[in-house]
Specification:
It is a single chain. The protein is an alpha+beta fold and 222 residues long. The protein has five helices and seven strands. The protein has a five-stranded mixed beta barrel with strand order 1-3-2-4-5. A two-stranded antiparallel ribbon has the order 6-7. A hairpin with a 2-residue loop joins β6 and β7. The longest helix is centred in the middle third of the chain and has 16 residues. The structure holds glutathione. Glutathione (GSH) binds next to β3 and α1. It catalyses: glutathione = L-cysteinylglycine + 5-oxo-L-proline. Interacts with NOTCH1 (via extracellular region). It is found in: Cytoplasm, Cytosol; Golgi apparatus, trans-Golgi network.
Length: 222
């Protein structure tokens, strides 16, 4: 994944939404599609893509409010993974992946299982602003877990979320790995990419782990 320089700030509010290059991924057989990742997809897309851009979507905030009983948790101890919450003042950083030709069908088929069937996510069209060209927004597909899905856990104090994350693991690994790799990605985005909710959970985890562990050793534990 190319890491753009952290030069850009958030776009001026006047920017118009992206021209809908592809009004809907369900219409016909799209030849090009952008997929926006903001959770595990930023560090583990696991599908073939032709290009990727670091950037953000406006009008949404990322929250660890989706339960996960497969990838990072179990039926008895559901893990916590992220979803997008509609928030007029929100801005969520992530990665958009461009899939072309055969990659489109393969990516959608794979993500339908990973995100929708196993994760409870629905698809939603969003406007993505590349960090290096926020004046040239793109229409992208995002996977969002709404409050109507059975795995939705909703809001909780960050300390409670941190406790759950420290106690859960699933078929894709420990929930702590999920949190720390997302936090690592946000560090790469630069100082203008803030996520107070994520930072509060990482801080809470830090107070619960022996400080000598909240480094590579923490990842070795998971
Ligand atoms: N849709 C979000 C969240 C995706 C996400 O974290 N989904 C979970 C499904 S519950 C997942 O794929 N987990 C794989 C893993 O944790 O390695 C994204 O775009 O990154």
């Amino acid at each position: 994944m190319k890491q753009e320089s952290a030069a850009q700030s958030t776009p001026p509010p006047s920017l118009s939404p992206a021209p809908s290059a592809q009004t809907s991924w369900e219409d016909g057989d799209p030849q090009t599609l952008w997929i926006f990742g903001y959770g595990s997809l930023v560090w583990k897309p696991d599908f073939d893509y032709s290009d990727s851009r670091v950037g953000f979507v406006r009008g949404y905030s990322r929250r660890f409010w989706q339960g996960d009983t497969f990838h990072r948790g179990s039926d008895k101890m559901p893990g916590r993974v992220v979803t997008l919450l509609e928030d007029r003042e929100g801005c969520t950083w992530g990665v958009a992946y461009e899939v072309r030709g055969e990659q489109v069908k393969e990516a959608l088929k794979y993500l339908n299982v990973r995100e929708a069937v196993l994760g409870g996510y629905d698809t939603k069209e969003v406007t993505f602003y590349p960090q290096d060209a926020p004046d040239q927004p793109l229409t992208a597909l995002a996977y969002v877990a709404t409050p109507q899905n059975p795995g939705y856990l909703g809001p909780a104090p960050e300390e409670v979320i941190a406790t759950q994350i420290l106690s859960c693991r699933g078929f894709s690994g420990h929930n702590l790995e999920y949190l720390l790799r997302l936090a690592d990605f946000m560090q790469l985005c630069g100082p203008q990419a803030q996520d107070e909710h994520l930072e509060a959970i990482v801080d809470a985890v830090g107070t619960m782990l022996p400080c000598s562990y909240l480094t590579e050793q923490a990842l070795a534990l998971v």
